[in-house]
Design goal:
The relative contact order is 0.12. The strands form seven sheets. The chain has a five-stranded mixed sheet, covered by helices on one side. Strands 1-2-5-4 form a four-stranded antiparallel sheet, with no helix packed on it. The protein has 392 residues and is mainly β. Helices cover 14% and strands 38% of the residues.
Length: 392
């Protein structure tokens, strides 16, 4: 019994050593095969070292004999370029297009079908644009505005009609809570091209809005040039404040959350110059201003100093103090504005915010105000407004 037990280790030790040797040989063979296997072939377009890449190009990465596991693209300011993998790692494509006179760095990591990992870095530079298009957004980032405020984007240079759909697709509006709306193309009072976004109905008070324009690298047309950057801004919708002017009764009534919070009397446009009707949006305000008759087509008839001026249309429909008018609340005798005492004009000025709406009722003016004459998006029905979209 004891002798048999002592012989057992002598039998098994060689077998264990042999097995261990076999495992070591197998592992070493796998690693060696992996090292000797070819790496996945990765192709970056535009190609590395290019110095004048054509504008309007996408950035793409392709892998053959394996798959991409990571792609990082940055511009010369360190900003990341968004993109997405597809085909299980067979390709990566940028979300947008290259911007003018920009150097991009592309870093890739790939794994071959045999499991071999490899990495590479390449750079390229885009050509300079003959003309760059810029934009001005309203409202400004971080502003708190009224419930009737549209998003308005004014372009420095013209937008070709065949470029409008692509530009509109690049503009995204998100809000909390979610609000239905649509972009519409407008000719601004200045003559420049503009695109506005208006909600189907007024914004709910307290809405948080974000606007993202992935415009960098998009061509706006021969006359307009290229966009050189993306744009992002946001704003908040404040209290629900509105005003209604009843022309026959010479009255302006203020409403907050639908509740009447006060009325004042004043003077609207005369029968010869009736105040523009419909729903206007407060576009700007000025605590002191000189009223110049020449700006509304009346030559040099007058030049009067006014206070607490609330601007509606770009052509000169304002709410303002009119201390020179001795018929306030009795006769409508202005040149299209609504004039008030100085103290009442300040009440209206303080109550209404940029983006608040002012509805004019009972006017004899038959003309609808053009949408581009201020922020006049509420002059049209929702169905009419939707027809302005290039994606309709």
């Amino acid at each position: 019994m004891h002798a048999a037990l002592r012989r057992h280790p002598a039998r098994f030790i060689p077998a264990l050593i042999a097995a261990a040797g076999l495992m070591t040989a197998c592992d070493g063979g796998t690693d060696a095969a992996k090292e000797d296997a070819p790496a996945a072939k990765v192709t970056v377009t535009p190609s590395a070292g290019s110095k004048s890449v054509k504008l309007g190009s996408e950035i793409s990465v392709r892998a053959s004999g394996g798959k991409l596991t990571a792609v990082e693209v940055k511009d010369d300011k360190g900003a990341k370029v968004a993109g997405r993998l597809a085909g299980g790692g067979a390709s990566w494509t940028s979300d947008g297009k290259v911007r003018p006179q920009t150097t991009y760095t592309v870093k890739t990591t790939a794994k071959s079908t045999q499991g071999k990992e490899s990495s590479a870095t390449s750079t390229f530079t885009t050509e300079q644009a003959d003309k760059v298009n810029k934009l001005t957004n309203t409202p400004g980032g971080g502003q708190t505005v009224g419930t009737g405020m549209p998003i308005s984007i004014l372009f420095d240079h013209p937008i070709a009609k065949d470029r409008r759909a692509e530009i509109e697709k690049a503009l995204k509006v998100t809000s909390q809570p979610k609000v239905e709306g649509s972009w519409g193309w407008v000719k601004d009072w200045s003559g420049k091209d503009r695109i506005d976004w208006r909600p189907k109905d007024y914004w709910p008070a307290g809405t948080k809005v974000s606007v993202n324009g992935a415009l960098g690298g998009i061509n706006s047309g021969t006359a307009g040039g290229w966009f050189a950057r993306d744009y992002t801004f946001g704003f908040t919708v404040g209290a629900d404040r509105k005003a209604v002017i009843d022309v026959p009764s010479h009255t302006l009534t203020m409403y907050e959350n639908g509740k009447n919070v006060g009325s004042i009397t004043g003077s609207a446009g005369s029968p010869q110059d009736p105040t523009r009707g419909g729903v206007h949006t407060v576009r700007s305000k000025n605590a002191a201003e000189t009223m110049d008759s020449a700006t509304i087509g009346h030559g040099d008839e007058w030049m009067l100093d006014s206070q607490w001026v609330t601007h509606l249309t770009a052509s000169g429909t304002f709410l303002h103090s009119a201390p020179w008018n001795k018929s306030l609340g009795v006769v409508n005798n202005s040149h299209g504005c609504f004039g008030m005492t100085t103290s009442d004009a300040k009440k209206v000025y303080d109550f209404l915010t940029i983006g608040s709406t002012v509805e004019v009722k009972g006017t004899t003016n038959p003309n609808k105000t053009d949408v581009g004459n201020g922020l006049e998006v509420w002059q049209e029905t929702w169905q009419q407004w939707q027809q302005r979209s290039a994606l309709k």
